[in-house]
Design a protein that fits this description.
globular; mainly alpha; two-stranded antiparallel sheet; about 75% helix; 13 helices
């Protein structure tokens, strides 16, 4: 059975539009990589060249050789891992309580969780800084992690609540009938089925914590404690911007999250689809 000519043309037009949109979205990434590998003389060429010419690793060597690079990598890893682990631990238990138990104020709590996500970041910077200053947690990785949790936990709870609601409660009841405790049923039945949701949620939390700039810039003053997003500022001086070093640094900064995302992207797609249920 052959397709109608009109349907074929519409499909071809939709594919062409999709490719055009994908190219427009990918062009900034292409230009970043091209600038990172270009010699300085070609970066400022006028008119600009859109195809690769001579390539060099000099910008990457200079970026890796900066004084605080590895210390900033350590800070980013600790902040990202700490934010993900704590938000998953607390968020999973809170989401389980919202999905499985009925208690006074349950609906109000869900509304509060949604409301927290609507508060603009700019309106919280000064109160958060004063609060952490009184607690002695400014210029501290722990203070940054606790601050990130304020913004990560509401999303984590809301998303995981949908995943848990999709798991039939009868499975837990059957496990408890066979002798499991409530915690044992959660660990043996719900948690394995929750794996796609945990992956999707952890990627979101990691990307947000890894790329966040404003809070890290305000709360961390020591050069060796700053994150990679702040480290990129070192390529902008009073003499101008080192675009080659900046693009090489941006490539190094984006690479870990991009690789991790590529490894687990199938689970993310399945997880988001599975969690899109009414709880």
């Amino acid at each position: 059975m052959t397709r109608a000519p009109g349907r074929t043309r519409r499909r071809a037009a939709a594919n062409a539009l999709g490719l055009l949109f994908a190219a427009a979205m990918a062009f900034p990434l292409y230009w970043m990589l091209l600038t990172a590998f270009r010699p300085a003389t070609e970066i400022h060429a006028d008119p600009p060249h859109f195809l690769p010419g001579h390539l060099t690793l000099e910008h990457f060597r200079r970026a890796l050789g900066t004084a605080t690079f590895w210390a900033n990598v350590r800070s980013s890893v600790l902040i990202g891992a700490g934010t993900v682990l704590v938000s998953l631990l607390i968020g999973t238990l809170a989401a389980f309580a919202l999905a499985r138990f009925s208690f006074a104020g349950r609906k109000a709590l869900v509304l509060v969780i949604l409301g927290v996500q609507m508060v603009p970041l700019a309106g919280l910077i000064i109160p958060l800084y004063l609060l952490l200053s009184d607690a002695g947690l400014t210029d501290s990785l722990l203070g940054v992690i606790l601050t990130y949790l304020v913004f990560m936990l509401p999303f984590t709870v809301w998303l995981l609540r949908g995943f848990i609601a999709a798991v039939p409660a009868e499975l837990e009841e059957a496990a408890m009938t066979d002798g499991c405790t409530r915690l044992g049923a959660f660990r043996r039945v719900v948690l394995p089925l929750l794996a796609p949701g945990l992956v999707a949620t952890s990627i979101y939390a990691l990307v947000q914590a890894w790329n966040e700039y404003v809070l890290a810039y305000v709360l961390l003053s020591s050069n060796d404690k700053q994150t990679l997003s702040i480290w990129l500022l070192s390529f902008q001086t009073s003499f101008g911007t080192d675009y080659g070093g900046l693009m090489a640094g941006a490539t190094l900064t984006a690479l870990p999250v991009a690789v991790f995302f590529a490894l687990v992207q199938r689970r993310i797609g399945a997880g988001l689809a599975a969690g899109a249920v009414k709880g």
